[in-house]
Amino acid sequence: ETLANKIAAGEVVERPASVVKELIENSIDAGASSVLIEIEEGGLKSIKVTDDGCGFAPEDCQIAFERHATSKIGKDADLFHIATLGFRGEALPSIAAVSYLELITSDDEHPGTHLVLQAGHIIAKGSAQSRKGTEIKVERLFYNTPARLKYLKSIHTELGKITEVVNRMALAYPNVRFTLIHEQKTLFQTNGSGNLSHVLAAVYGVRTAKAAYSFNGESLDFKVSGLAVHPQISRAGRQYVYIFINNRFIRNYPLFNSIMDGYHTLMMVGRYPICVIHIYMDPSLVDVNVHPAKLEARISKEGELCALISETIRKAFHRERL
Ligand code: ADP
Ligand code: MG
Question: Does the keyword Lipoprotein belong to this entry (predicted)?
Fold first, then answer.
């Protein structure tokens, strides 16, 4: 059981940023309106995520650390059919298997619970006084899997990956307030107002947010909206184009290309825009066929969607008479 956890952990937990991603997703699933992420030494020493979500009922705490005990579905293809980000009941057991983990949680109906695990085994259990919500602290990640530990890069690199994850989640959920603190220093913060432009400003600065054109469009099957930053502020890489389907970050080359098409001749060769696009659709039109962490999506009626995206972005710039 513990060995299985350690092996499976390698799939879910690649580095500190993967822990941050899984914990934030759980907070979102718990209906949090505020998520605080506190990091020490790029997450290598500790990662603490505190939310104001629904919390765990006392009887659910232990179960959550048993592999697949909470699995919501059977196969990856169902990923977009469910309302929650988590679905396999794998993250918490996997993270716990390769760290020291401490959980403090309260659902506001029962006394709070305090649980401490070492390498997936519960070593202390008690009640706790706590406000509604959950705090999970992960320390000494990979302390018992030296091979994995060795593979990690510098604090600087790991912190960069964590920042990417938090930025992405903030862009996906503008109505959730995110705070990222590293060694007591606030690196990133959003206000949870639901205003995407504010989130963009938090990620890339006010100048970039001011240069962003908002767009909106819909077709029979799709709704798209977002912010396309004017090409005067462009980048040398593609990773500043964020595509979210039903609030889930995905990668999809045809969709990326349709965004580039929307920019058309405005973008210089070798340059890429900063752009955030939210796509909403019936979940039955989207499918993931690869590892869920990579989130490469396949979309039915892709042609319709691509045309809608290009046209909507093109219009946004046209409207503003670029
Ligand atoms: P999954 O998200 O796939 O269900 P996880 O291992 O990530 O699996 O989490 C297991 C379960 O623990 C969740 O289904 C949820 O019931 C509970 N849980 C985890 N994190 C939180 C949280 N922050 N607040 C409330 N419940 C949580
Ligand atoms: Mg989860």
Answer: no
Between CA 299 and CA 279 the distance in angstroms is 11
CA distance 179 to 166: 9
**Three-state secondary structure call for residue 242:** strand
Cβ-proximal residues to 3 (8 Å cutoff; 6+ apart), any chain: none
- The residue type of 68 is H
Which pLDDT tens digit goes with each residue over 13-38? 899 999 999 999 999 999 999 999 99
* Four-residue CA torsion sign, 130, 131, 132, 135: negative
71 CA to centre of ligand 1 in angstroms: 10
Cα–Cα distance, 178 to 166 (Å, whole number):
8
Place of tokens 């690199």: 157
Q: Which residues share a beta bridge with 250?
A: 243
Q: Look up residue 303 and give its two tokens.
A: 């042609």
Look at the block and give the residue holding tokens 């970050």.
249
Determine the atom of ligand 1 nearest the C-alpha atom of 88.
3
Closest atom of ligand 1 to CA, residue 87: 3
This model of the complex carries an ipTM of 0.99
C-alpha 5: how far from its chain's center? 23
> Where do the domains of the chain lie, and which CATH numbers do they carry?
2-189 (3.30.565.10), 205-319 (3.30.230.10)
Q: How many CA atoms lie within 13 A of 219 on its CB side?
A: 17
Q: Give residue 297's pLDDT.
A: 84
With a 6 Å cutoff on the Cβ, whether 50 touches ligand 1 is no
Atom of ligand 1 at shortest range from CA of 107: 25
